[in-house]
Design goal:
The longest helix is centred in the middle third of the chain and has 25 residues, at about 45-65. The chain is of the alpha+beta class. The protein has a three-stranded mixed β-sheet. The chain folds into two domains: about 5-40, 3-Layer(aba) Sandwich (YefM-like fold), CATH 3.40.1620.10; about 45-90, no CATH class. About 65% of the residues lie in helices and about 15% in strands. A hairpin with a 2-residue loop joins strand 2 and strand 3.
Length: about 90
């Protein structure tokens, strides 16, 4: 169930709202004049969401590379990585 609180509760009940976010691991929706305005969530949940979003973007980029034929055999890829690493050590 969505937790919806008026913006005045941020001033008057911040500790309670913060605790709800952390313990329930659910966002709290803040309203201003009865309309959705902001969403609060725990720092851990936010960081997890950011990590998952980054992974999804990486997977989408990889899927696009495959669909456009922008791929190489794994042996070639590792050979290229080794070559670059060795070249970097020689500098």
């Amino acid at each position: 169930m969505d937790m919806i609180r008026p913006s005045a509760d941020l001033r008057n009940h911040y500790s309670e709202i913060s605790k709800l976010c952390r313990e329930n691991r659910q966002p709290v929706y803040i309203t201003v004049n009865g309309r959705g305005d902001t969403v609060l969530m725990s720092m851990d949940d936010f960081q997890q969401m950011q990590t998952e979003l980054e992974l999804l973007r990486t997977l989408a980029d990889a899927e696009e590379d495959v669909s456009t034929g922008c791929v190489a055999p794994i042996e070639d890829t590792f050979s290229d990585i080794r070559r670059r690493l060795l070249a970097g050590r020689d500098k």
